[in-house]
């Protein structure tokens, strides 16, 4: 089932009177429960494309439809609400809140959505258990390894039961064992909860596990390969 459509999407930045086509005429479709990697050299437009998909940036032209909703036509408040309900984000830098525990970081979006305390407690424990951190609920980020922090970030991204998770270089700062553990967790959640995962990555470990590989060069899609 098709859930994301990009139609002739362009993103142009003006820099020193030079127009930079960060994303150039991209047409893509994503089905439910895909596990896809967007790859390409630095400057190819991977992160820009991911930001456009997540509504963190708006295309210069073209359309991005998620479940038929055109992100560019939403008001700022509507876009924030749409993202909070539908999209989870995992960033290279983790972006955990230092003064909050692992449990409190996972609960952050649920607090904004006014979940009951009982529901927050149940969901945060369920997710931290799923990522192998049931024993670190009350640990702050400074007391966690990089791999553990990234697993908390994945749990947080999944907290509000999003349909899509966008992950920008999620394994870039991790050692091989932590990266493999994280990818196995995400693949398991993709399979069991039918969440669509889209990665921007240089990491061959991510590419190896992806079920679809989209290659960008100079903002254009030059290859789109679905794997068995």
Overview of this structure, please?
The structure is a single chain. With 228 residues, the chain is of the alpha/beta class. 36% of the residues lie in helices and 30% in strands. It has helices at residues 46-53, 76-86, 102-112, 117-130, 146-158, 176-193, 204-209, and strands spanning 2-15, 18-31, 35-39, 61-66, 69-70, 87-90, 164-168, 196-200, 212-217, 220-226. The chain has a 6-stranded mixed sheet, with helices on both faces. A 4-stranded antiparallel sheet has the order 2-1-4-5, with helices on one face. A hairpin with a 2-residue loop joins β4 (61-66) and β5. α4 crosses α5. The radius of gyration is 17 Å and the shape is globular. It starts with a strand and ends with a strand. The model has no long low-confidence stretch (mean pLDDT 91).
Q: What is the 3D form?
A: globular
Low-confidence stretches: none
Radius of gyration from the alpha-carbon trace, in angstroms: 17 Å
Question: What would the average pLDDT be, to the nearest integer?
Answer: 91
- Strand arrangement in the largest pleated sheet: 6-7-8-3-9-10
Main sheet characteristics:
6 strands, mixed
| Distance, first to last CA | 17 Å
Derived from helix and strand composition plus strand pairing, the structural class reads: alpha/beta
Task: Please give a handful of descriptors for the protein shown.
globular; 228 residues; four-stranded antiparallel beta sheet; 30% strand; alpha/beta; 10 strands; six-stranded mixed beta sheet
